[in-house]
Amino acid sequence: MKDAAGIVRTNFLAGQGLGNQLWVYAAGRGIAAHLRRPHVVTGLELFKGAGFLEIDSADDPDPGAPVTPFNEALFYDPALKYFSATYDSRVEKLPPRAQIDGLFQSEKYFYGRTGDLADWVRPTEQLQRLSEKYADTCVLNLRGGEYKRHKSLILPRSYWDHAIACLRERVRADNILVVTDDRPYARAFLPEFEVLEGGVAECYAALMGAKALVVSNSSFSYFPIKTRRDVPLVIAPEHWARYGHAAKRWAMPSNFYEGWLYIGTDGRPCDPDACRNAAELDAQTYEVEYSVRVPADMGIGLPKTRHLPQWLKRPLKKMAARIAPTRIG
User: Fold this and answer.
1) If 95 and its partner were Cys, which of 68, 69, 181, 304 is the partner (CB 3.0–4.6 Å)?
2) pLDDT below 70 — which residues of the chain?
3) What per-residue confidence (pLDDT) applies to 1?
4) Which residue in 131, 75, 123 sits closest to 227, CA to CA?
5) CA atoms of 177 and 33, how far apart (whole Å)
6) Which of 259, 251, 252 lies closest to 213, judged by CA?
């Protein structure tokens, strides 16, 4: 019997944000290109960029053939209370027909094809035109929402003050705009700046077109910035998801991105080579010293409130967020 044709498959999930979807999609494209296989995307009806972003999916040459799941290795760091990931080199030897599941937020999954991202993720003409109105704007991409429940994840006001000072030292920043998923939080947290009134597409367009950016530790900002044809100034938090933590290590070494300026708690930019080397060293530590694997349903590191039904959690969270917008998402 003839062997089934090889593929790399990405499956979009209902609970994924746009940034997470684009990462698993682009990583799948990179891995598929490296292995010289078609890249198939399922769950396209759940794609949160539909209507303003264009992506591609190959046809599965053997749609009835079985597909082997591949789970990216994760490392739970008890000091950081965080699930970390690095580049998982096992993808270089995937089964012939494999579906990749995980975070996949390392540029190493592109195998030197970062320049192809603008072809893999394309804005519609309308979005491109919309982005052009932000050419003289400096954007602060503030993440709120559920981040406010995690005090070690949400970025403090001091980060934004340092980053804005760093921004103003490097570019003329007469027009600063806050782009956020949580407008009530933004108005309370950064009251001196205008907050963008718009949906996901408008937020994406602002990041695509901005003159310079200060980003939070969110996956949303990567693709509107990295698919641009130019290279803007981008200021980001050192150690990403654990900025200011006493351990002083990258919570996820994958989140060091080339060309971005990372600042520490003292407000000083980190030397790019030093940042890169620190992230690589942290990745090696996770890969060598963290070796125990457990099933995902054990719930390690997950909040106890996950057992509450959604019909109860949602109204409680909404009510609490109105009362304390800077603390509750």
Assistant:
1) 68
2) 1-4, 298-308, 310-314, 316-329
3) 40
4) 123
5) 38
6) 259
Using CA atoms, how far residue 171 sits from 43, 174, 193, 255, in Å, is 41, 9, 17, 25
State how far Cα 180 lies from the chain centre: 14
Please write the tens of the pLDDT for every residue from 96-146: 999 999 999 999 999 999 999 999 999 999 999 999 999 999 999 999 999
Q: What is the pLDDT of residues 296-327, one digit of tens each?
A: 776 655 555 555 576 665 676 566 666 666 66
pTM (2 d.p.):
0.91
Q: Are 173 and 137 in contact, with CB atoms under 8 Å apart?
A: no
Residue located via tokens 């999916």: 57
Rounded to whole angstroms, the Cα distance separating 216 from 201 reads 18
List of residues 6+ apart from 138 with CB closer than 8 A: 167, 171, 173, 175, 176, 177, 210, 211, 212, 213, 214
